[in-house]
Amino acid sequence: GAFKKVLEHFGRLDIVVNNAGVNNEKDWESTIQINLTSVIRGTYLGLEYMRKGNGGDGGVIINISSLAGLMPAAFQPVYCATKHGVIGFTRSIAVTASMENYGVRLNTICPGFVNTPILQSIDKEENMGQYYSYKDEIKNMMQFYGVMDPSIIAEGLITIIEDDTLNGEVMKITASQGIHFQQYSQTPFTSSKR
């Protein structure tokens, strides 16, 4: 419904940001649904409305992951898995979009700790379940890495929206290093379809 309202009001869809995130290790199936399944669904809906071969004008889709999507997190295994999934899905669908000439770029942002309500979830046993005893370790990590204001994430978002060369990229945003990109080695093969 939201996608249809945007099209009715503006006549086109140019930008989609899938920013889903909960931290609930106890209700892990819900965490998967919110953090990963909804991002995939939002991406596919965005592609349907935006891709050039389907009457769209192209655009950009940005899926929000986390630094937990790039490293293990012993006290948040399901959250970590969902955020790894967002990165793998986005990088893969970006290659497809390029090969199929969708005219849509897809990228991922992986913020460190950001001052949003999700940070309070670590203090709740009903969210952390068996990992609740690790809450002080998470707080120590937050103190070590620092907690960022959401405005720096918005700055990274604007960069991805404005830079037409970015597709399949993973932007990391940390308090210590600011905005920078994850480096990956070149994929050893390409599709024989094109």
TrEMBL record:
Lineage: superkingdom: Eukaryota
Reactions listed under catalytic activity: 15-oxo-(5S,6R)-dihydroxy-(7E,9E,11Z)-eicosatrienoate + NADH + H(+) = (5S,6R,15S)-trihydroxy-(7E,9E,11Z)-eicosatrienoate + NAD(+); 14-hydroxy-(4Z,7Z,10Z,12E,16Z,19Z)-docosahexaenoate + NAD(+) = 14-oxo-(4Z,7Z,10Z,12E,16Z,19Z)-docosahexaenoate + NADH + H(+); (11R)-hydroxy-(5Z,8Z,12E,14Z)-eicosatetraenoate + NAD(+) = 11-oxo-(5Z,8Z,12E,14Z)-eicosatetraenoate + NADH + H(+); resolvin D2 + NAD(+) = 16-oxoresolvin D2 + NADH + H(+)
Keyword list, A-Z: Fatty acid metabolism, Lipid metabolism, Oxidoreductase, Prostaglandin metabolism
GO MF annotations, alphabetized: 15-hydroxyicosatetraenoate dehydrogenase activity; 15-hydroxyprostaglandin dehydrogenase (NAD+) activity
Organism: Cathartes aura (Turkey vulture)
Task of the protein: Catalyzes the NAD-dependent dehydrogenation (oxidation) of a broad array of hydroxylated polyunsaturated fatty acids (mainly eicosanoids and docosanoids, including prostaglandins, lipoxins and resolvins), yielding their corresponding keto (oxo) metabolites. Decreases the levels of the pro-proliferative prostaglandins such as prostaglandin E2 (whose activity is increased in cancer because of an increase in the expression of cyclooxygenase 2) and generates oxo-fatty acid products that can profoundly influence cell function by abrogating pro-inflammatory cytokine expression.
Gene Ontology process terms (BP): prostaglandin metabolic process
CDD domains on file: ADH_SDR_c_like
SUPFAM superfamilies linked to this entry: NAD(P)-binding Rossmann-fold domains
Protein name per Swiss-Prot or TrEMBL: 15-hydroxyprostaglandin dehydrogenase [NAD(+)]
One of the record's GO cellular component terms: cytoplasm
Enzyme Commission (EC) number: 1.1.1.141, 1.1.1.232
InterPro entries: NAD(P)-bd_dom_sf (IPR036291), Sc_DH/Rdtase_CS (IPR020904), SDR_fam (IPR002347)
Alphabetical list of Pfam families matching this protein: adh_short
Recorded family membership: Belongs to the short-chain dehydrogenases/reductases (SDR) family.
Keyword Ribosomal protein: no
Position of the signal peptide: none
